[in-house]
Write a structure and sequence with these properties.
The chain has 289 residues and is an alpha/beta fold. 47% of the residues are buried.
Length: 289
């Protein structure tokens, strides 16, 4: 649940479809359509998901085109976007949490997505140069104005989650932090989200099994540190990525992974993780690596 909105237990992170190394438009759109066909109803993007030197919002425009071209129903589909980050010409990332910037960013995102209100708007990262309460206060203004339906925060610690809850109240519905087989430092935030009833959206949830779009190509050789995921996958006759997502779903009832995909086959495989029920013995093995 994202507030009062029910979505599929696995979402689609669309970053790989619009940053460097992205597939062509036809395959990108086919990937989104395959996810929707498989029951995915949460699509995650951001205004900063574009190649270096590209135009802000390229990822949002791609999602909008893919939805417009979809032949099935879109009832229940929720698009989440993020604001507060940018790209540099050399491929770096910037942070800008000033309310004036966020206002322009949110308005531009709404135009590109062609939807009002924005389904879920997330602060992409706290700006160390701006008091976090100021950035959050502007998100509250967006909610009050009806520009945004639901709000979330990303790349935050426990104290920042509690501050966001104090300022946004029940309209704060999600936290998007990095968490995966390889990166498990977010346990405290994951537990806090469970206590507060907030959806916890792990980004780069396949870390250790596949590379993030931030780290280069998606293909990755088997890493002995995460051999348990490959052993369970071989025993089950499924991909280690599907095992990793099933493991994440078992961490908490509020976990909602958003794996990226750049091929329809990958999107379908990720969505199938909802039906892979791991045994207690398998979970214990995976918890150990």
């Amino acid at each position: 649940m994202l507030g009062d909105v029910r979505v599929g237990a696995v979402g689609l992170g669309t970053m790989p479809l619009s940053v460097e190394g992205r597939p062509d438009e036809r395959r990108a759109v086919a990937t989104v359509h395959a996810a929707l066909d498989a029951g995915v109803t949460l699509l995650d993007t951001a205004d900063s998901y574009h190649p270096p030197g590209g135009a802000p919002g390229e990822g949002e425009r791609l999602v909008a085109r893919a939805l417009a071209a979809y032949g099935g129903g879109l009832d229940g589909v929720l698009v989440a976007t993020k604001g507060g980050r940018g790209r540099t010409a050399d491929g770096g990332w910037t942070v800008d949490g000033r309310p004036a910037h966020l206002r322009r960013a949110a308005e531009a995102s709404a135009r590109r997505l062609g939807s009002a209100p924005i389904g879920l708007y997330q602060l992409h990262k706290p700006d160390p140069a701006v008091p976090y309460a100021e950035s959050l206060g502007f998100v509250r203004e967006l909610l009050d104005a009806g520009t945004v339906r639901l709000a979330g925060v990303s790349n935050v610690d426990a104290a920042q989650i509690l501050l966001a809850r104090a300022i946004l109240g029940d309209r704060l519905v999600s936290v998007q932090n990095r968490y995966s087989p390889a990166v498990r430092t977010g346990e405290a935030e994951l537990r806090l989200c469970a206590e507060l009833g907030l959806a916890f959206l792990p980004w780069s949830p396949l870390g250790g099994i596949s590379r993030s779009s931030l780290d280069g190509a998606s293909a990755q050789e088997e890493d002995v540190r995460f051999g348990a995921f490959h052993r369970v996958a071989r025993a089950r006759g499924v991909s280690p990525q599907r095992v990793a997502l099933a493991w994440l779903l078992g961490r908490s009832d509020t976990v909602l992974p958003i794996p990226g995909a750049s091929r329809p086959e990958s999107a379908r495989d990720s969505a199938a993780a909802v039906s892979l029920l791991l045994t207690e013995a398998e979970v214990a093995e995976l918890d150990g690596g």
